[in-house]
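Running log. JK asked me to keep both predictions on one page so they can be read side by side. First protein, sequence followed by its C-alpha coordinates:
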Amino acid sequence: MKVLFIGGTGNISTEVSKLAIASGIDLYLLNRGRIGVEIPKAKFLIDDISDAGATSALLQDHQWDIVVDWIAYTEDEVERDIGLFRGKTRQYVFISSASVYQKPPSHPVITESTPLHNPFWEYSRNKIACEERLLRAWRDEGFPVTIVRPSHTYDTILPAVIGGGREYTLIDRMVKGQKVILHGDGTSLWTLTHAEDFARGFVGLLGHQQAIGHAFHITSDEILTWNQIYQAIGEEVGAEPRIVHMPSDFIGKQEPSLYGTLLGDKAYSVLFDNSKIKRFVPAYQAVIPFRQGIRRTLAWFAENPARQVVQPETNEMMERLLREYGK
Protein backbone atom coordinates (compact mmCIF):
# COMPACT_ATOMS: atom_id res chain seq x y z
CA MET A 1 0.00 0.00 0.00
CA LYS A 2 1.16 3.51 -0.82
CA VAL A 3 0.42 5.67 2.21
CA LEU A 4 0.87 9.38 2.95
CA PHE A 5 1.18 10.66 6.51
CA ILE A 6 0.78 14.41 6.93
CA GLY A 7 3.03 14.81 9.95
CA GLY A 8 4.18 11.36 11.02
CA THR A 9 7.06 12.24 13.36
CA GLY A 10 5.18 13.26 16.53
CA ASN A 11 4.64 11.68 19.94
CA ILE A 12 2.06 9.19 18.63
CA SER A 13 2.74 9.10 14.92
CA THR A 14 6.44 8.18 15.10
CA GLU A 15 5.64 4.71 16.47
CA VAL A 16 2.84 4.34 13.91
CA SER A 17 5.24 5.27 11.11
CA LYS A 18 7.78 2.69 12.27
CA LEU A 19 5.18 -0.08 12.53
CA ALA A 20 3.65 0.84 9.17
CA ILE A 21 7.04 0.42 7.50
CA ALA A 22 7.69 -2.83 9.37
CA SER A 23 4.33 -4.04 8.04
CA GLY A 24 5.45 -3.49 4.45
CA ILE A 25 3.70 -0.19 3.78
CA ASP A 26 5.29 2.18 1.25
CA LEU A 27 5.24 5.24 3.52
CA TYR A 28 5.60 8.89 2.56
CA LEU A 29 5.84 11.58 5.24
CA LEU A 30 4.80 15.10 4.32
CA ASN A 31 6.02 17.64 6.87
CA ARG A 32 8.36 20.57 7.31
CA GLY A 33 11.27 18.35 8.35
CA ARG A 34 11.98 20.32 11.53
CA ILE A 35 11.69 17.71 14.28
CA GLY A 36 14.74 15.67 13.30
CA VAL A 37 13.19 12.25 13.93
CA GLU A 38 14.74 9.47 11.87
CA ILE A 39 12.38 6.91 10.36
CA PRO A 40 14.40 4.55 8.15
CA LYS A 41 12.84 3.62 4.79
CA ALA A 42 10.26 6.42 4.93
CA LYS A 43 10.18 8.79 1.98
CA PHE A 44 10.10 12.42 3.10
CA LEU A 45 8.25 15.14 1.22
CA ILE A 46 9.33 18.48 2.70
CA ASP A 47 6.42 20.88 2.49
CA ASP A 48 4.18 23.17 4.53
CA ILE A 49 0.65 21.75 4.22
CA SER A 50 -0.81 25.17 5.04
CA ASP A 51 0.26 26.27 1.53
CA ALA A 52 -2.41 24.27 -0.30
CA GLY A 53 -1.27 25.46 -3.74
CA ALA A 54 2.33 24.31 -3.25
CA THR A 55 1.15 21.04 -1.72
CA SER A 56 -1.21 20.38 -4.61
CA ALA A 57 1.65 20.90 -7.08
CA LEU A 58 3.96 18.64 -5.06
CA LEU A 59 1.39 15.82 -4.92
CA GLN A 60 -0.24 16.20 -8.34
CA ASP A 61 1.32 13.06 -9.81
CA HIS A 62 0.53 10.86 -6.81
CA GLN A 63 -2.39 8.56 -6.10
CA TRP A 64 -2.68 7.19 -2.57
CA ASP A 65 -4.19 4.10 -1.07
CA ILE A 66 -4.37 5.93 2.27
CA VAL A 67 -3.84 9.47 3.53
CA VAL A 68 -3.57 10.18 7.28
CA ASP A 69 -3.61 13.76 8.56
CA TRP A 70 -2.04 13.85 12.02
CA ILE A 71 -2.01 17.64 12.36
CA ALA A 72 -5.40 18.97 11.18
CA TYR A 73 -7.17 20.85 13.98
CA THR A 74 -9.79 23.06 12.34
CA GLU A 75 -12.64 22.70 9.88
CA ASP A 76 -10.76 24.87 7.36
CA GLU A 77 -7.86 22.43 7.44
CA VAL A 78 -10.00 19.38 6.72
CA GLU A 79 -11.81 21.36 4.01
CA ARG A 80 -8.38 21.89 2.44
CA ASP A 81 -7.68 18.14 2.68
CA ILE A 82 -10.98 17.24 1.04
CA GLY A 83 -9.98 19.47 -1.87
CA LEU A 84 -6.46 18.04 -2.06
CA PHE A 85 -7.39 14.35 -1.85
CA ARG A 86 -10.86 14.09 -3.39
CA GLY A 87 -10.55 11.29 -5.95
CA LYS A 88 -6.89 10.71 -5.01
CA THR A 89 -7.14 8.30 -2.08
CA ARG A 90 -9.08 5.19 -1.15
CA GLN A 91 -9.07 6.06 2.56
CA TYR A 92 -8.57 9.31 4.44
CA VAL A 93 -7.91 8.96 8.19
CA PHE A 94 -8.57 11.94 10.43
CA ILE A 95 -6.91 12.07 13.84
CA SER A 96 -9.52 13.47 16.20
CA SER A 97 -9.44 13.28 20.01
CA ALA A 98 -11.26 11.36 22.73
CA SER A 99 -11.84 14.73 24.39
CA VAL A 100 -14.71 15.23 21.92
CA TYR A 101 -16.86 12.91 24.01
CA GLN A 102 -19.55 14.41 26.21
CA LYS A 103 -18.27 16.50 29.13
CA PRO A 104 -19.33 16.01 31.81
CA PRO A 105 -20.12 12.41 30.84
CA SER A 106 -23.64 11.18 31.52
CA HIS A 107 -22.32 7.60 31.64
CA PRO A 108 -18.85 6.52 32.81
CA VAL A 109 -18.29 3.97 30.02
CA ILE A 110 -17.25 5.64 26.78
CA THR A 111 -18.12 4.01 23.46
CA GLU A 112 -17.87 5.43 19.96
CA SER A 113 -21.60 6.24 20.16
CA THR A 114 -21.17 8.44 23.25
CA PRO A 115 -22.44 11.93 22.30
CA LEU A 116 -19.89 14.47 21.11
CA HIS A 117 -20.18 17.61 23.24
CA ASN A 118 -17.53 19.66 24.99
CA PRO A 119 -18.53 23.18 26.12
CA PHE A 120 -15.27 23.63 28.05
CA TRP A 121 -12.53 23.28 25.43
CA GLU A 122 -12.30 24.99 22.04
CA TYR A 123 -9.78 22.40 20.82
CA SER A 124 -12.39 19.66 21.27
CA ARG A 125 -15.16 21.70 19.64
CA ASN A 126 -12.89 22.25 16.63
CA LYS A 127 -12.26 18.52 16.38
CA ILE A 128 -16.03 17.87 16.53
CA ALA A 129 -16.54 20.36 13.69
CA CYS A 130 -13.85 18.56 11.66
CA GLU A 131 -15.54 15.21 12.21
CA GLU A 132 -18.94 16.57 11.20
CA ARG A 133 -17.56 18.13 8.01
CA LEU A 134 -15.76 14.92 7.01
CA LEU A 135 -18.77 12.72 7.69
CA ARG A 136 -20.89 15.08 5.61
CA ALA A 137 -18.37 14.69 2.77
CA TRP A 138 -18.61 10.92 3.15
CA ARG A 139 -22.43 10.95 3.09
CA ASP A 140 -22.78 13.49 0.28
CA GLU A 141 -19.98 12.49 -2.07
CA GLY A 142 -18.44 9.27 -0.79
CA PHE A 143 -15.25 10.84 0.57
CA PRO A 144 -13.66 7.76 2.23
CA VAL A 145 -13.09 8.98 5.78
CA THR A 146 -12.18 6.99 8.88
CA ILE A 147 -12.01 8.83 12.21
CA VAL A 148 -9.62 7.84 15.01
CA ARG A 149 -9.85 9.37 18.50
CA PRO A 150 -6.71 8.91 20.59
CA SER A 151 -7.00 9.56 24.30
CA HIS A 152 -4.01 10.40 26.52
CA THR A 153 -1.25 8.69 24.53
CA TYR A 154 2.39 9.02 25.55
CA ASP A 155 5.88 8.05 24.46
CA THR A 156 8.12 11.11 24.13
CA ILE A 157 5.89 13.27 26.32
CA LEU A 158 5.42 13.12 30.08
CA PRO A 159 1.76 12.29 30.88
CA ALA A 160 0.88 14.76 33.61
CA VAL A 161 -1.55 17.52 34.46
CA ILE A 162 0.86 20.42 35.05
CA GLY A 163 4.57 20.43 34.22
CA GLY A 164 4.55 17.50 31.83
CA GLY A 165 4.15 17.12 28.09
CA ARG A 166 7.38 18.24 26.43
CA GLU A 167 8.55 19.63 29.77
CA TYR A 168 10.56 18.02 32.55
CA THR A 169 9.32 20.48 35.16
CA LEU A 170 7.19 17.95 37.07
CA ILE A 171 10.10 15.52 37.43
CA ASP A 172 12.44 18.30 38.50
CA ARG A 173 10.02 19.33 41.24
CA MET A 174 9.50 15.76 42.42
CA VAL A 175 13.24 15.10 42.66
CA LYS A 176 13.80 18.36 44.55
CA GLY A 177 11.04 17.53 47.02
CA GLN A 178 8.85 20.42 45.89
CA LYS A 179 5.08 20.26 45.91
CA VAL A 180 3.22 19.16 42.77
CA ILE A 181 -0.45 19.71 41.96
CA LEU A 182 -3.20 17.24 41.13
CA HIS A 183 -6.81 18.05 40.35
CA GLY A 184 -9.61 16.83 42.59
CA ASP A 185 -8.66 14.32 45.25
CA GLY A 186 -6.58 12.27 42.80
CA THR A 187 -9.00 9.33 42.79
CA SER A 188 -10.65 10.01 39.43
CA LEU A 189 -9.97 7.22 36.95
CA TRP A 190 -7.83 7.73 33.87
CA THR A 191 -6.43 5.74 30.96
CA LEU A 192 -2.92 6.20 29.57
CA THR A 193 -1.92 4.46 26.35
CA HIS A 194 1.62 3.94 25.10
CA ALA A 195 2.11 5.03 21.49
CA GLU A 196 3.46 1.60 20.56
CA ASP A 197 0.21 -0.01 21.71
CA PHE A 198 -1.86 2.61 19.89
CA ALA A 199 0.11 1.87 16.71
CA ARG A 200 -0.95 -1.78 16.73
CA GLY A 201 -4.62 -0.89 16.57
CA PHE A 202 -4.14 2.01 14.19
CA VAL A 203 -2.11 0.18 11.53
CA GLY A 204 -4.76 -2.53 11.53
CA LEU A 205 -7.30 0.04 10.32
CA LEU A 206 -5.19 1.16 7.36
CA GLY A 207 -6.71 -0.18 4.18
CA HIS A 208 -9.61 -1.75 6.11
CA GLN A 209 -12.52 -1.37 3.69
CA GLN A 210 -15.16 -1.80 6.39
CA ALA A 211 -13.66 1.05 8.46
CA ILE A 212 -14.82 3.72 6.01
CA GLY A 213 -17.43 5.98 7.59
CA HIS A 214 -16.60 4.72 11.10
CA ALA A 215 -15.02 6.32 14.17
CA PHE A 216 -12.77 4.48 16.63
CA HIS A 217 -10.95 5.18 19.83
CA ILE A 218 -7.84 3.14 20.57
CA THR A 219 -6.75 3.00 24.21
CA SER A 220 -5.31 0.72 26.84
CA ASP A 221 -7.66 -1.27 29.07
CA GLU A 222 -5.55 -0.40 32.13
CA ILE A 223 -7.35 1.98 34.48
CA LEU A 224 -5.45 4.04 37.05
CA THR A 225 -6.22 6.84 39.47
CA TRP A 226 -4.24 10.05 39.06
CA ASN A 227 -2.70 9.38 42.48
CA GLN A 228 -1.44 6.02 41.19
CA ILE A 229 -0.06 7.66 38.04
CA TYR A 230 1.96 10.20 40.03
CA GLN A 231 3.10 7.58 42.52
CA ALA A 232 4.39 5.41 39.65
CA ILE A 233 6.25 8.37 38.15
CA GLY A 234 7.75 9.23 41.52
CA GLU A 235 8.92 5.68 42.13
CA GLU A 236 10.72 5.61 38.78
CA VAL A 237 12.69 8.77 39.63
CA GLY A 238 13.27 7.77 43.24
CA ALA A 239 11.08 10.44 44.80
CA GLU A 240 7.94 10.50 46.94
CA PRO A 241 5.61 13.02 45.27
CA ARG A 242 4.43 15.80 47.59
CA ILE A 243 0.97 16.04 46.03
CA VAL A 244 -1.36 18.95 46.75
CA HIS A 245 -4.92 18.27 45.63
CA MET A 246 -6.98 21.18 44.33
CA PRO A 247 -10.48 21.38 42.83
CA SER A 248 -10.40 21.44 39.04
CA ASP A 249 -12.63 24.49 38.83
CA PHE A 250 -10.30 26.37 41.21
CA ILE A 251 -7.30 25.54 39.02
CA GLY A 252 -9.19 26.50 35.87
CA LYS A 253 -10.35 29.80 37.34
CA GLN A 254 -6.86 30.74 38.50
CA GLU A 255 -5.14 29.55 35.30
CA PRO A 256 -7.43 29.83 32.25
CA SER A 257 -4.84 27.99 30.12
CA LEU A 258 -5.66 24.85 32.13
CA TYR A 259 -9.43 25.26 32.07
CA GLY A 260 -10.02 23.28 28.86
CA THR A 261 -7.59 20.46 29.56
CA LEU A 262 -9.13 19.90 33.00
CA LEU A 263 -12.84 20.69 32.79
CA GLY A 264 -12.89 19.56 29.16
CA ASP A 265 -10.94 16.37 29.68
CA LYS A 266 -8.93 15.15 32.67
CA ALA A 267 -11.26 16.13 35.52
CA TYR A 268 -13.68 13.26 34.87
CA SER A 269 -13.36 9.52 35.32
CA VAL A 270 -13.60 7.75 31.98
CA LEU A 271 -13.63 4.05 31.11
CA PHE A 272 -13.08 3.32 27.43
CA ASP A 273 -14.88 0.39 25.85
CA ASN A 274 -12.42 -0.90 23.22
CA SER A 275 -14.66 -3.64 21.85
CA LYS A 276 -15.14 -1.86 18.51
CA ILE A 277 -11.45 -1.59 17.61
CA LYS A 278 -11.01 -5.21 18.72
CA ARG A 279 -13.87 -6.27 16.43
CA PHE A 280 -12.31 -4.55 13.43
CA VAL A 281 -8.70 -5.42 14.36
CA PRO A 282 -8.98 -8.75 16.25
CA ALA A 283 -5.26 -8.87 17.04
CA TYR A 284 -5.34 -5.55 18.87
CA GLN A 285 -4.35 -5.65 22.52
CA ALA A 286 -2.56 -3.01 24.57
CA VAL A 287 0.30 -4.87 26.26
CA ILE A 288 2.48 -2.12 27.79
CA PRO A 289 1.42 -1.37 31.39
CA PHE A 290 2.01 2.18 32.59
CA ARG A 291 4.83 1.24 34.94
CA GLN A 292 6.76 -0.21 32.02
CA GLY A 293 5.79 2.55 29.61
CA ILE A 294 6.70 5.44 31.92
CA ARG A 295 10.08 3.80 32.54
CA ARG A 296 10.71 3.93 28.80
CA THR A 297 9.55 7.55 28.58
CA LEU A 298 11.80 8.64 31.44
CA ALA A 299 14.70 6.76 29.83
CA TRP A 300 14.07 8.74 26.63
CA PHE A 301 14.33 12.00 28.56
CA ALA A 302 17.47 10.75 30.32
CA GLU A 303 19.21 9.95 27.02
CA ASN A 304 19.65 13.63 26.23
CA PRO A 305 19.88 16.38 28.87
CA ALA A 306 18.59 18.84 26.27
CA ARG A 307 15.20 17.12 26.52
CA GLN A 308 14.98 17.82 30.26
CA VAL A 309 13.48 21.26 29.88
CA VAL A 310 12.43 22.94 33.13
CA GLN A 311 10.17 25.89 32.41
CA PRO A 312 10.42 28.82 34.86
CA GLU A 313 6.94 29.92 33.78
CA THR A 314 5.47 26.57 34.82
CA ASN A 315 7.22 26.70 38.16
CA GLU A 316 5.88 30.20 38.72
CA MET A 317 2.36 29.04 37.80
CA MET A 318 2.51 26.15 40.26
CA GLU A 319 3.85 28.34 43.05
CA ARG A 320 1.13 30.91 42.35
CA LEU A 321 -1.56 28.22 42.49
CA LEU A 322 -0.13 26.88 45.75
CA ARG A 323 -0.14 30.36 47.29
CA GLU A 324 -3.70 31.12 46.20
CA TYR A 325 -4.99 27.76 47.36
CA GLY A 326 -3.22 28.19 50.67
CA LYS A 327 -5.24 31.33 51.29
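And the second, directly underneath as requested:
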Amino acid sequence: MSFEEAYGASPSRSPASAGGSTPRPLARGALPRSSAELEAALAAFAERARMYRQQVARGGAMPDSQVENWEGMNRALDGFMSRPLGRSDARGVEQARSVLEAELEQDGRTYGDMPGTLAEAVMLRVGRLALLMASMHRQEHPEAAGGLPRLSWPVAPVSITSLFGYRWHPITGRHRRHLGVDLAAHHGQVIYTAEKGVVLRAGWNGDHGNQVEVQHAGRWVTRYSHLSRVLVEPGEILERGDALGLAGETGLATGVHLHFELWRDGEPMDPLDALGGEETPSEGAPMAWGREPAGPATHQGRRPVVGQRP
Protein backbone atom coordinates (compact mmCIF):
# COMPACT_ATOMS: atom_id res chain seq x y z
CA MET A 1 0.00 0.00 0.00
CA SER A 2 1.34 3.38 -0.96
CA PHE A 3 1.91 6.22 1.49
CA GLU A 4 -0.84 8.29 -0.15
CA GLU A 5 -3.37 5.50 0.35
CA ALA A 6 -2.43 5.21 3.99
CA TYR A 7 -3.74 8.60 5.12
CA GLY A 8 -7.10 10.32 5.07
CA ALA A 9 -8.16 13.96 4.92
CA SER A 10 -7.65 16.11 7.98
CA PRO A 11 -7.89 19.67 9.26
CA SER A 12 -6.03 22.29 7.26
CA ARG A 13 -4.18 23.66 10.30
CA SER A 14 -2.13 21.96 12.97
CA PRO A 15 -1.62 23.46 16.41
CA ALA A 16 1.87 24.90 16.01
CA SER A 17 3.64 26.84 18.67
CA ALA A 18 3.88 30.57 18.20
CA GLY A 19 7.09 32.52 17.90
CA GLY A 20 10.07 32.50 15.57
CA SER A 21 12.36 30.12 17.44
CA THR A 22 12.55 26.46 16.49
CA PRO A 23 11.29 24.13 19.24
CA ARG A 24 13.85 21.72 20.58
CA PRO A 25 13.45 18.10 19.40
CA LEU A 26 11.77 15.83 21.89
CA ALA A 27 14.44 14.10 23.95
CA ARG A 28 14.43 10.32 23.68
CA GLY A 29 13.73 9.86 27.37
CA ALA A 30 11.26 12.76 27.75
CA LEU A 31 7.82 11.17 27.32
CA PRO A 32 4.56 13.06 27.97
CA ARG A 33 2.80 12.01 31.15
CA SER A 34 -0.41 14.00 30.67
CA SER A 35 -2.61 15.34 27.88
CA ALA A 36 -1.18 18.83 28.46
CA GLU A 37 2.38 17.56 27.95
CA LEU A 38 1.30 15.59 24.88
CA GLU A 39 -0.34 18.67 23.34
CA ALA A 40 2.87 20.64 23.92
CA ALA A 41 4.89 17.90 22.22
CA LEU A 42 2.44 17.86 19.30
CA ALA A 43 2.70 21.63 18.88
CA ALA A 44 6.50 21.50 18.85
CA PHE A 45 6.45 18.58 16.40
CA ALA A 46 4.08 20.42 14.02
CA GLU A 47 6.18 23.60 14.14
CA ARG A 48 9.38 21.71 13.31
CA ALA A 49 7.59 19.88 10.49
CA ARG A 50 6.40 23.21 9.03
CA MET A 51 9.93 24.60 9.13
CA TYR A 52 11.44 21.54 7.44
CA ARG A 53 8.86 21.67 4.63
CA GLN A 54 9.79 25.29 3.92
CA GLN A 55 13.40 24.24 3.39
CA VAL A 56 12.65 21.64 0.69
CA ALA A 57 11.37 22.19 -2.84
CA ARG A 58 8.07 20.48 -3.56
CA GLY A 59 8.73 16.93 -4.68
CA GLY A 60 12.07 16.72 -2.89
CA ALA A 61 13.08 13.91 -0.57
CA MET A 62 12.05 14.05 3.07
CA PRO A 63 15.10 15.28 5.05
CA ASP A 64 16.59 13.19 7.83
CA SER A 65 15.60 15.91 10.29
CA GLN A 66 11.91 15.35 9.51
CA VAL A 67 12.33 11.59 9.73
CA GLU A 68 13.82 12.08 13.20
CA ASN A 69 10.99 14.48 14.04
CA TRP A 70 8.42 11.78 13.19
CA GLU A 71 10.34 9.11 15.11
CA GLY A 72 10.46 11.34 18.19
CA MET A 73 6.71 11.94 17.95
CA ASN A 74 6.09 8.21 17.64
CA ARG A 75 8.11 7.59 20.81
CA ALA A 76 6.13 10.28 22.62
CA LEU A 77 2.83 8.69 21.59
CA ASP A 78 4.00 5.24 22.63
CA GLY A 79 4.91 6.60 26.05
CA PHE A 80 1.59 8.41 26.41
CA MET A 81 -0.49 5.39 25.37
CA SER A 82 1.52 2.89 27.45
CA ARG A 83 -0.13 4.12 30.66
CA PRO A 84 -3.78 3.75 31.71
CA LEU A 85 -5.86 6.47 30.07
CA GLY A 86 -8.81 8.22 31.67
CA ARG A 87 -11.51 10.65 30.63
CA SER A 88 -9.14 13.59 31.01
CA ASP A 89 -6.95 12.10 28.29
CA ALA A 90 -9.66 12.15 25.61
CA ARG A 91 -8.64 15.60 24.39
CA GLY A 92 -5.01 14.55 24.03
CA VAL A 93 -5.96 11.43 22.08
CA GLU A 94 -8.21 13.40 19.72
CA GLN A 95 -5.59 16.12 19.28
CA ALA A 96 -2.87 13.57 18.52
CA ARG A 97 -4.89 11.86 15.81
CA SER A 98 -5.80 15.22 14.24
CA VAL A 99 -2.18 16.43 14.20
CA LEU A 100 -0.73 13.20 12.84
CA GLU A 101 -3.26 13.04 10.01
CA ALA A 102 -2.76 16.72 9.15
CA GLU A 103 1.03 16.44 9.11
CA LEU A 104 0.94 13.22 7.05
CA GLU A 105 -1.18 14.99 4.45
CA GLN A 106 1.10 18.03 4.36
CA ASP A 107 4.21 15.85 4.06
CA GLY A 108 2.53 13.85 1.31
CA ARG A 109 1.92 17.05 -0.64
CA THR A 110 5.45 18.35 -0.07
CA TYR A 111 7.86 15.46 -0.33
CA GLY A 112 8.34 13.12 -3.25
CA ASP A 113 8.76 10.17 -0.94
CA MET A 114 8.52 9.11 2.67
CA PRO A 115 10.25 5.99 4.04
CA GLY A 116 7.69 3.20 3.83
CA THR A 117 8.52 1.80 7.24
CA LEU A 118 8.05 5.22 8.80
CA ALA A 119 4.68 5.74 7.09
CA GLU A 120 3.51 2.36 8.33
CA ALA A 121 4.71 3.12 11.86
CA VAL A 122 2.82 6.42 11.88
CA MET A 123 -0.38 4.85 10.56
CA LEU A 124 -0.25 2.13 13.21
CA ARG A 125 -0.39 4.89 15.81
CA VAL A 126 -3.11 6.82 13.96
CA GLY A 127 -5.18 3.65 13.91
CA ARG A 128 -4.64 2.99 17.59
CA LEU A 129 -5.59 6.56 18.44
CA ALA A 130 -8.79 6.16 16.40
CA LEU A 131 -9.65 3.00 18.32
CA LEU A 132 -8.98 4.70 21.64
CA MET A 133 -11.23 7.59 20.60
CA ALA A 134 -14.05 5.19 19.66
CA SER A 135 -13.68 3.30 22.95
CA MET A 136 -13.65 6.51 25.01
CA HIS A 137 -16.70 7.80 23.15
CA ARG A 138 -18.63 4.59 23.88
CA GLN A 139 -17.75 4.85 27.57
CA GLU A 140 -18.61 8.54 27.78
CA HIS A 141 -21.80 8.30 25.70
CA PRO A 142 -23.18 4.76 25.98
CA GLU A 143 -26.59 5.95 24.79
CA ALA A 144 -25.10 6.95 21.42
CA ALA A 145 -23.93 3.38 20.78
CA GLY A 146 -27.22 1.83 21.83
CA GLY A 147 -28.47 1.31 18.28
CA LEU A 148 -25.17 0.10 16.82
CA PRO A 149 -24.39 -3.58 16.27
CA ARG A 150 -21.46 -5.13 18.11
CA LEU A 151 -19.30 -6.57 15.34
CA SER A 152 -16.33 -8.90 15.60
CA TRP A 153 -13.17 -8.08 13.66
CA PRO A 154 -13.21 -9.64 10.16
CA VAL A 155 -9.44 -10.23 10.22
CA ALA A 156 -6.85 -10.90 12.91
CA PRO A 157 -4.47 -9.56 14.02
CA VAL A 158 -5.92 -6.07 13.52
CA SER A 159 -3.86 -3.31 11.92
CA ILE A 160 -5.72 -0.29 10.53
CA THR A 161 -4.08 1.32 7.50
CA SER A 162 -6.78 3.81 6.46
CA LEU A 163 -9.71 5.33 8.32
CA PHE A 164 -13.28 6.28 7.48
CA GLY A 165 -13.70 9.80 6.06
CA TYR A 166 -12.40 12.06 3.31
CA ARG A 167 -8.95 11.56 1.78
CA TRP A 168 -6.92 12.10 -1.37
CA HIS A 169 -7.26 8.93 -3.43
CA PRO A 170 -3.79 7.51 -4.28
CA ILE A 171 -4.69 6.39 -7.81
CA THR A 172 -7.21 8.92 -9.13
CA GLY A 173 -5.68 11.89 -7.28
CA ARG A 174 -9.17 13.14 -6.39
CA HIS A 175 -10.47 14.19 -3.00
CA ARG A 176 -13.08 11.57 -2.16
CA ARG A 177 -14.82 10.01 0.77
CA HIS A 178 -13.42 6.74 2.10
CA LEU A 179 -16.53 4.77 3.00
CA GLY A 180 -14.92 2.22 5.29
CA VAL A 181 -11.71 1.22 7.02
CA ASP A 182 -8.75 -0.62 5.50
CA LEU A 183 -7.29 -3.49 7.51
CA ALA A 184 -3.87 -4.92 6.77
CA ALA A 185 -3.78 -8.53 5.58
CA HIS A 186 -1.52 -10.89 3.68
CA HIS A 187 -2.52 -12.51 0.40
CA GLY A 188 -4.85 -15.45 1.00
CA GLN A 189 -5.54 -14.60 4.65
CA VAL A 190 -8.97 -15.74 5.82
CA ILE A 191 -11.66 -13.05 6.09
CA TYR A 192 -14.53 -13.63 8.53
CA THR A 193 -18.14 -12.52 8.83
CA ALA A 194 -18.47 -9.77 11.43
CA GLU A 195 -21.98 -10.87 12.48
CA LYS A 196 -24.64 -13.42 11.60
CA GLY A 197 -26.41 -12.63 8.34
CA VAL A 198 -27.35 -13.63 4.82
CA VAL A 199 -25.11 -13.11 1.77
CA LEU A 200 -26.57 -10.52 -0.62
CA ARG A 201 -23.66 -10.30 -3.07
CA ALA A 202 -20.65 -12.50 -3.70
CA GLY A 203 -18.50 -11.74 -6.73
CA TRP A 204 -16.98 -8.97 -8.81
CA ASN A 205 -18.09 -5.39 -8.07
CA GLY A 206 -16.04 -2.90 -10.11
CA ASP A 207 -13.44 -0.93 -8.13
CA HIS A 208 -14.14 -3.12 -5.10
CA GLY A 209 -12.90 -6.20 -6.96
CA ASN A 210 -14.19 -9.43 -5.47
CA GLN A 211 -16.66 -8.37 -2.81
CA VAL A 212 -19.00 -10.05 -0.35
CA GLU A 213 -21.99 -8.15 1.00
CA VAL A 214 -23.86 -9.48 4.04
CA GLN A 215 -27.28 -8.36 5.32
CA HIS A 216 -27.70 -8.42 9.12
CA ALA A 217 -30.64 -7.92 11.46
CA GLY A 218 -31.81 -4.34 11.87
CA ARG A 219 -31.14 -3.39 8.22
CA TRP A 220 -27.36 -3.39 8.77
CA VAL A 221 -25.07 -4.39 5.91
CA THR A 222 -21.34 -5.18 5.96
CA ARG A 223 -19.12 -5.25 2.86
CA TYR A 224 -15.76 -6.99 2.39
CA SER A 225 -13.75 -5.87 -0.67
CA HIS A 226 -10.58 -6.63 -2.70
CA LEU A 227 -10.81 -10.37 -1.95
CA SER A 228 -8.57 -12.75 -3.88
CA ARG A 229 -11.20 -15.47 -3.60
CA VAL A 230 -14.86 -15.62 -2.56
CA LEU A 231 -15.92 -18.64 -0.47
CA VAL A 232 -19.67 -18.04 -0.26
CA GLU A 233 -22.65 -17.63 -2.57
CA PRO A 234 -25.68 -15.28 -2.53
CA GLY A 235 -28.44 -16.54 -0.29
CA GLU A 236 -26.22 -18.40 2.16
CA ILE A 237 -26.78 -17.84 5.87
CA LEU A 238 -23.53 -17.19 7.74
CA GLU A 239 -22.84 -17.29 11.44
CA ARG A 240 -20.66 -14.74 13.20
CA GLY A 241 -17.05 -15.69 12.46
CA ASP A 242 -17.69 -17.85 9.37
CA ALA A 243 -15.02 -17.54 6.67
CA LEU A 244 -16.38 -15.75 3.60
CA GLY A 245 -13.30 -15.08 1.49
CA LEU A 246 -9.55 -14.68 1.23
CA ALA A 247 -7.69 -11.37 1.29
CA GLY A 248 -6.28 -9.95 -1.93
CA GLU A 249 -5.88 -6.80 -4.00
CA THR A 250 -8.52 -7.16 -6.72
CA GLY A 251 -10.22 -4.08 -8.12
CA LEU A 252 -8.83 -0.58 -7.50
CA ALA A 253 -6.21 -1.34 -4.84
CA THR A 254 -2.50 -0.64 -4.55
CA GLY A 255 -1.74 -3.50 -2.16
CA VAL A 256 -3.23 -6.46 -0.32
CA HIS A 257 -5.71 -5.42 2.36
CA LEU A 258 -9.34 -5.75 3.40
CA HIS A 259 -11.61 -2.79 2.78
CA PHE A 260 -14.46 -3.15 5.29
CA GLU A 261 -17.68 -1.11 5.23
CA LEU A 262 -20.76 -0.81 7.48
CA TRP A 263 -24.05 0.53 6.08
CA ARG A 264 -27.57 1.08 7.35
CA ASP A 265 -30.51 2.14 5.19
CA GLY A 266 -28.18 3.18 2.36
CA GLU A 267 -25.93 5.33 4.56
CA PRO A 268 -22.30 4.44 5.34
CA MET A 269 -21.21 4.42 8.99
CA ASP A 270 -17.78 4.49 10.60
CA PRO A 271 -17.11 0.78 11.30
CA LEU A 272 -14.92 1.64 14.30
CA ASP A 273 -18.06 2.72 16.17
CA ALA A 274 -19.29 -0.88 16.05
CA LEU A 275 -16.15 -3.03 15.86
CA GLY A 276 -14.51 -4.70 18.81
CA GLY A 277 -17.14 -4.03 21.46
CA GLU A 278 -15.49 -2.47 24.52
CA GLU A 279 -12.08 -4.00 23.88
CA THR A 280 -8.98 -1.84 23.75
CA PRO A 281 -5.70 -2.49 21.94
CA SER A 282 -3.16 -4.86 23.46
CA GLU A 283 -0.38 -3.05 25.28
CA GLY A 284 2.19 -5.46 23.86
CA ALA A 285 1.09 -5.01 20.26
CA PRO A 286 -0.56 -1.63 19.69
CA MET A 287 -2.85 -2.77 16.87
CA ALA A 288 -3.32 -6.50 17.51
CA TRP A 289 -6.35 -8.42 18.66
CA GLY A 290 -6.33 -12.14 19.13
CA ARG A 291 -4.34 -14.61 17.10
CA GLU A 292 -4.23 -15.28 13.40
CA PRO A 293 -5.99 -18.53 12.47
CA ALA A 294 -3.61 -21.41 11.93
CA GLY A 295 -5.82 -23.52 9.68
CA PRO A 296 -7.04 -22.91 6.12
CA ALA A 297 -10.63 -22.06 5.31
CA THR A 298 -12.67 -24.62 3.42
CA HIS A 299 -15.71 -23.98 1.26
CA GLN A 300 -17.81 -26.54 3.14
CA GLY A 301 -18.84 -25.06 6.45
CA ARG A 302 -16.78 -21.89 5.87
CA ARG A 303 -14.92 -22.44 9.14
CA PRO A 304 -11.21 -23.17 9.60
CA VAL A 305 -10.74 -26.54 11.24
CA VAL A 306 -8.07 -25.09 13.56
CA GLY A 307 -7.66 -21.56 14.88
CA GLN A 308 -9.18 -18.74 16.82
CA ARG A 309 -11.90 -16.57 15.36
CA PRO A 310 -11.35 -12.81 15.65
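Observation for JK regarding the second prediction: The longest strand covers residues 220-230.
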